[in-house]
Amino acid sequence: MTDAQETASANPAQAPSEDSGPAPVPLLEPREGIPPVTATPEALSDVIDAFAGGTGPVAVDAERASGYRYGQRAYLIQLRREGAGSALIDPVGCPDLTALCEALGDAEWVLHAATQDLPCLREIGMVPARLFDTELAGRLAGFPRVGLGAMVEKVLGYALEKGHSAVDWSTRPLPEPWLRYAALDVELLVDLRDALEIDLQSQGKLDWALQEFAAIATAPPAPPRKDPWRRTSGMHKVRRRRQMAVVRELWTARDRIAQRRDVSPGKVLSDTAIVEAALGMPQTVQALAALPGYGQRMGRKQLEQWQASVERARALPESELPQHGQQLNGPPPPRSWADKDPDAAARLSAARTAVTTRAEELDLPQENLLTPDTVRRLCWEPPAERSLEAVSDALRAYGAREWQIDQTAELLTTAMDASAPEE
Length: 423
Hints:
- InterPro entries: 3'-5'_exonuclease_dom (IPR002562), Exo_C (IPR041605), HRDC-like_sf (IPR010997), HRDC_dom (IPR002121), HRDC_dom_sf (IPR044876), RNase_D-like (IPR051086), RNaseH-like_sf (IPR012337), RNaseH_sf (IPR036397).
- It comes from Streptomyces gossypii.
- Residues 1-39, 318-342 are annotated as: Disordered.
- This is Ribonuclease D.
- By secondary structure, this protein is an alpha/beta fold.
- The protein has three domains: 3-218, Nucleotidyltransferase, domain 5; 228-320, DNA polymerase, domain 1, CATH 1.10.150.80; 334-418, HRDC domain (DNA polymerase, domain 1), CATH 1.10.150.
- It has helices spanning 3-10, 41-52, 98-104, 114-123, 134-141, 148-156, 176-187, 189-203, 206-218, 241-261, 265-268, 271-280, 285-289, 300-315, 337-340, 342-362, 366-369, 372-380, 388-397, 402-418; strands spanning 25-26, 37-38, 55-64, 74-82, 85-89, 108-111, 130-133, 158-159.
- The strands form two sheets. A six-stranded mixed β-sheet has the order 2-5-4-3-6-7, with helices on both faces. A two-stranded parallel sheet has the order 1-8.
- Helix 5 (134-141) runs parallel beside helix 8 (189-203), helix 6 (148-156) packs across helix 8 (189-203) and helix 19 packs across helix 20.
C-alpha cells in the first residue's frame, strides 16, 4: 500500500479534491476494517446499542439480488454513524430491524438514491423519520453525473471500487471482497452529505432539497402496478388482443413459478420467449419448441406447461381478452393531443418550453424542477381561472412542492395565457 493509500484508508475526510489536481485516491479499506456480518439476535443487540449511542446522521445502504431472486428484498444492510463505526447486517438472519430503527430515533438517514432502497428497508422495519438523499442533492446542485462513485470522486477526491454492484447478494457466505465493497459504500456517505449541504446552501437550493427529502420520507408505499404483464419487453410488437392474452397467461404462469422457486422471472422464461409465443401462437408443443427461447435445454414437461398457457389464451371468449392499452389515469399520450385538443397541445408546447428554460437557468434537470406528468396534467385540464393563484393550487394538488410552485407557477400561467386561442 502506498503512502497516499494508507492516508486514504486512515483519514478519508482529508482527501484531495478534484480541483486541486491530483488523481482520485483509491479507497481500498474501511477505516476500522471490514466489520463482521451481524446475523444473530445477540449480535444485532450489540449493533443496536452501538448505533443508539452514536451521534449525527446515519449512512444507510441496502444490497438486493435483482436478476437472481424473486422480488426486491434486501440481502445486506450497511450502516455507519459517528461513534458507532460501520455495521453489516444480514436481514436473512435478522429479518426484523424495527428495534434498530427505533433506536435511531429521529436521526437523519443518509442514502444514495433513497427511493430504490426504501421499499426493501420498509419490509424489515426500517423507516426513516428524516433523510438526506445524496443522489437527489447532486441533481439539484447541477452535477452532470450523480452515481455514487462519480460524486465521491468529484466532491471528495476518492475512487470507489464498483465491481460488485450487480452480484448475487443472496449468496451465503458473502465473499470478503463483496463485504469490503459493501462497507465502503457507506464509508463516505456522511462526508458527501456534508459537502453537498454546503454546495446547496451556497446556491440557495438547500431549502428546495429539504422539501424534496421530506416528500420522499413521508410518501406512502407505492400501490401494486396494474396489469404488470403489459410491461413485458417487446410488448409493442404484440398487436392483437388474443396475442396479448398469450402474453398475460405466460407472464402469470412464469411469475407464479418464479415466486415459488424464489428466482428472478427472467431465469424461468425470458420476455423474448413470451413475445415469440404470442406472435407465433403455436398449436403444438413441437411448434413451441421451435421458437426462440424454447430450445433443447428445455424439458418436455416445461414445454407442456408453457403450451398449456398458450392454449388457455386461445380458448378465452372474446369478452375476456385484454383490451388494447391500459385505462388511462390522466391525459392521453402527448402525440395525440394535436388531433384530440389542439389548444391543449399549444399549452403543452408553451409550458414545456418555459419549464425547460427555467431548469437550464437553475442548472438542474427539468424533471426535478417539475415532473413531466404534472406539466401534462396541468395543460390537459387547466384551471378554469388562468390566475397565478389558480395555477399554484393546481400544481399543489398534483403534488408539486412549494419551491417548485414558486419557480414555475408564474411561468406556466404566462405560457398558458400566451397559447390560449383568441376569442
